[in-house]
Amino acid sequence: MAGPGFSGERLVTRKTHRHGGGTDRRGPPAAGPGRPAERGPAPKRLRRGPPPERAEAKAEPSPRRHGGPGDVVRIYGFHSVTAALKAPRRELVRLYVTPAAAERLAAEIAGRGVETRVASAEEIAQRLPRDAVHQGVLLEARPLAPIDVSELPADGLVVVLDQVTDPHNVGAILRTCAAFAVDALVTTERRTPEFTGALAKSASGGLEHVPICSVTNLARAMGELGDLGYWRVGLDSEAPASLQATRLERPLALALGAEDRGLRRLTREHCDALARLDLPGAIKSLNVSNACAIALSIADAATKPT
Predict the structure, then answer these.
(1) Pick from 97, 189, 297, 305: CA 20 to 30 A from residue 68's CA?
(2) Domain containing 113: what range?
(3) Is residue 289, in this structure, part of any structural domain at all?
């Protein structure tokens, strides 16, 4: 963010005159007719530093997707907060609720013993972004620790996201993953939204039920999934076969890319198969969260024990 620079009068430094290698110690000539009075030596020119905003931006650490043990994330929305209150692995810090919401959540609050502050809806709104729909509840909690690829189950079902950056999409995908009992969501540490705020609201409690496997290199993680025996299927609108006609068996990893770019080359190369979603209607492309829901429905039907 550009900020105002230093504003001050421009000051010029005058060099002292030297004669024959020495310094002229004589005073300035007296003013006379046709000779203006000479000004004394100007003060030193001030050296400008970087604007405060730019200096702060440079010193600001890079954001962490999951935060550290001392960090606090904010979860709002009735369903998201209720799920967090019921999740044993979520460490709670403080709850802000309206009187009406406090009555509805009385059992959950008593069960967790979380510090609770009753506040008005306006007071809660002041602690959140302007467009946040908090529904009378705001929970401050510790972020959930991500899991490692090695912790995935031997016969699991996982969803892999290749740089899907919209928090509403990722939240909706988490909600769908929770509905289909997905074992983990694999994402990259970079180009992934924070697992808090709008994402948690869109997940509607799914964040508490689906472990997050955060990796630094997605291609390497896809290789590790293959080493664990996972059959890796990437969704691609130009794939040679439909998902229904593609081999689907557990352990299974479904990979989805960003809506504008799709799967990156290295991600595609680490897939065992590429498949498309065949749609009967006039619209052939879907929002990535909707595509995930259809893909999981097909995968769930194909991998159920007979």
Answers:
(1) 97
(2) 73-141
(3) yes
